[in-house]
UniProtKB/TrEMBL annotation:
Taxonomic placement: Bacteria, Bacillati, Bacillota, Bacilli, Bacillales
Transmembrane segments: 66-87, 94-112, 118-142
Protein's name according to its UniProt entry: VanZ family protein
Leader sequence residues: none
Residues covered by the VanZ-like domain: 42-138
Amino acid sequence: MPNESKPRPLRLAAVLAWAAVLLMLTGTESLRHLLIHRELLFSFDPSPDFRAFFRWADIRTVHGEWLLVKLGHFLGFAALDLLLMAWLGSKLRALGLSLLFAVFTEVLQLFQHRDGRLYDVLIDVSGALAAALMVALFATLLKKNPAIPVSNEFNRFNNSQRR
């Protein structure tokens, strides 16, 4: 049986790769331009309006593709949290890092002529929390029904989550 404290370089690489994708998507000046023209545009605003981070009035008017963009926030951070849990072996630490990264990416958007918002942080963290709850629910279902075949890797991961 492998040592639980053994470094997991491939899992770390997956976390870093996905974090880079999220940074690219949140850091580009225009998500629409990226999706249509497949070009990354970066700009820097040296003095952003930090009050905009706390704006709620525009929650449904920032873009026409509001639902798709918010679903992207939710699913992107759900995936990040799953990768973090697999790397760290801890739901709580994974959620904490997901929260920090969500705040970082939204504040970063303020410096790039984008709309970094607190409500997006909440959507991001909701995705991460949903992923953690999904893992916990799946583990509970497996305990109640031992007839379901499960890989040894999941059992090791699930046992490490109890720490």
